[in-house]
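Render this sequence as a predicted structure.
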Amino acid sequence: MSQSKLRYYLDENMDPDISEQLRRHGVDALAARDVGLLQVADGVKLRYAAAHGRILCTKDSDFADPVKWEVKHDGVAFFPDRSVSIGYAVNALLELYRNETAENMKNSLRYL
């Protein structure tokens, strides 16, 4: 049985270099600048990620409270440390990619 792999969408709070490094590792990752979604409302970010089957990756603490979520989504990868390094973020998202499935991530929140 094939497990579907994670696909990431990094909002503007995440350095776009993270998505570039993830792609070098064969991971499907897009940054907000790649899709023209800079400085949009939180709901737009989450709906975009959900519509495209992507995990929303963010440092935005508004996403740390699942009660605020109004839509079904494919998961949120939340970095509570806003000063997290690019290397740490890449490694954490690679670890999640290697150890989790898209099915298990649906409507979940992961602190990284």
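Summary. The CA atoms of residues 23 and 29 lie 6 Å apart. The helical segments are 16-24, 42-51, 86-99, 102-105.
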